[in-house]
Every structure is written in structure tokens, then in C-alpha cells.
Specification:
319 residues, alpha/beta, inorganic pyrophosphatase (n-terminal core), Diaminopimelate Epimerase, Chain A, domain 1, 2 domains, globular, binds guanosine-5'-monophosphate, binds manganese (II) ion
Amino acid sequence: MTLDNILEEIKKAQTIVILCHESPDGDAIASSLSVMYAVKQLGKDADVVIPDYSKVFNFLPGADKIKKEGKTKNYDLAISVDCTDLKRLVGGSEYFETAKKTVQIDHHSVNSMFADYNYVNPASPACCQVLIGMFEYLGIEINKDLGTCILTGILADTGGFQWGGVTPETFEFAAELLRKGVNISKICQQVLRNKTKAHCEFEKLIYERLEFFYNGQIALAYLTIEDYKKLSTDMGDDEGLVEMIRDIDGVEVAVLLKEKEGLNGFKASMRSKDKVNVSDIGLILGGGGHSRAAGCFIQGSLEHAKTKIVNIIEQEMKK
Ligand code: 5GP
Ligand code: MN
């Protein structure tokens, strides 16, 4: 079984690196740290390499161990978490492709199975929830620190148990962690409620720029490189904005276009309420994600990106 193989590879490895997807969110960062703690219980030190992430997550136990770069180019074992494919994996070519053995753990429904051992469960609302089952099987004890990391990933990817995909196990696990003293309300405050001033300025811009299509069922806004230069102080400042658009009454699909420096185009973040599978739209445009949260990159001008994505969403909605 895959998990036995993974355990064997961890035991064999002298050097281990843990990697996650670009623009890492709470689930990606927390999954990385969770795997670091688990591997530690198996007697191994692993390098968690995340070159850039929101300082919001510095409260996580173990965050001080995160490295901007790996120690070597030839790790015995590389473990990817919360990532669909090699293209999105930060450090993919330096550390993953050069490692002797590779493992990946994920929860996206479309995953290219790019590792030697792939442990992927699309039924799980967060990669961190996939880890719970895995850790139970491997005999890893979920203590307060590890539990704080895991719950952070779950809270981040479910918007605080709000989005679809939350399972009875999610609550059972949260209850167990409460008994162990994990401070759920502190995590929620830190990860879900706290807003930077730059975030509030982004909110203002978005409300000013909102455009509606298809009888108000599609809503779109954008942020330019100039906006980021003027306002942003931290990577996480634009988290939660696309959900804010989705919350508007009558909106089924929300789109936020974020212009990317040096790439001549826009990263699109999409969210849907309960009908449209935005992962399909992401895939059509060369990206991917989940049914209610997905993304892609669109090259070209703002007008081009808008027209392209709105047309595709309209086509999907007419089906
Ligand atoms: P976000 O809008 O928060 O950046 O991403 C939402 C979801 O879609 C996340 O699960 C993320 O991993 C996935 N996603 C976003 N952009 C891409 C992309 O370009 N390719 C793939 N495969 N997944 C993406
Ligand atoms: Mn995730």
C-alpha cells in the first residue's frame, strides 16, 4: 500500500525536503509544517522550503523553521503537499525532480500524479485532513502543535467549516483537538478574521470596480500591478477578496483578476456558490482547482482576460 511505501521511504531517507504550491495558502503552509512534525516523530529532520508566504502564518508552531532555500540539490526524499502538478510546485525543478524518491499528498480532484508515490484524496476538504488519516495509519501522535497546524489548514480551506466538502470527520477531529487544548478561536481570528489595512484598501477598489454579467450571476473585479505596488505590504493582503465578491446576493460565480508582474497577464481566482464547477473552467484555461474554488492564468490585456473568462463561464452556465 502507498502509505507503507511512504513510511519505508521516510525511514530510509537521510535528507528530506517538503515543498508546496506557489502563492501558498494556509492549507499549503500548514500541511508542510504538519509533515515536518510527523517526520520528526519518525526520527528524521526535514527541510520545509517556502521562499515566500504571508506573515499571517508566522503564529504557526514550527514556522520559524521554514527555509527560503533548500540545503542540497539532491535530497533522498522530496515530499509535495497540497499541489496538483509539478508546474505549480515551488522548488519543483531544483528539489523535487532532483530527489532520489518523491512523494505527494494532496486533495485536488484533478492531480497529475507526478510523484513516485501519490497519496491523493479528492473527497477531503483540505490537504491537512488527508494528513489525519495518513498520520493515524503511520502511528503519528497528533499533539497540540501538530494539531494546531492541521486545524489551521482545515479552517483555511473550508473558510472556517463554511464551504462544501466539510465532512463529519472534520468536526470529530476538531472536537478531539479542542479536548487537547488547541485554541480554535485564536486560529480563526488569526487566519480568517484579521484584515490588514492594505486588505481594506483592496476591498474598496473591488467594490468600485465590480462588474456584473449574465443577469448578475457572474461578478468580476480586478487588481493591477500598480494597485499592489501602491497598497500591498504582504502576500496575504489579497486573501478572501474573491469570496467577498461571491457573497453578493444573486452571484453564482465570482472572479478576481490579479495582474502579475513580468508575466504579461492576469491570475484569475474563481469561486462559485452552488451550481457551477469552476474547476472545469480553470482546466479549459490551463489551470485547475476544486469545484467551488479554482484558478488559472490568462495572458494578455485586462480587457482580453475579462472577455475570455466571462465568455467561458457563460458557456458553462448555459449548459
Ligand atoms: P486561489 O484562487 O485561491 O489562488 O486558488 C483556488 C484553488 O484553485 C486552489 O485550490 C488552488 O490550488 C487552485 N488553483 C489556482 N490556480 C491554479 C492553477 O493555475 N492551476 C491549478 N492546477 N490549480 C490552481
Ligand atoms: Mn488545499
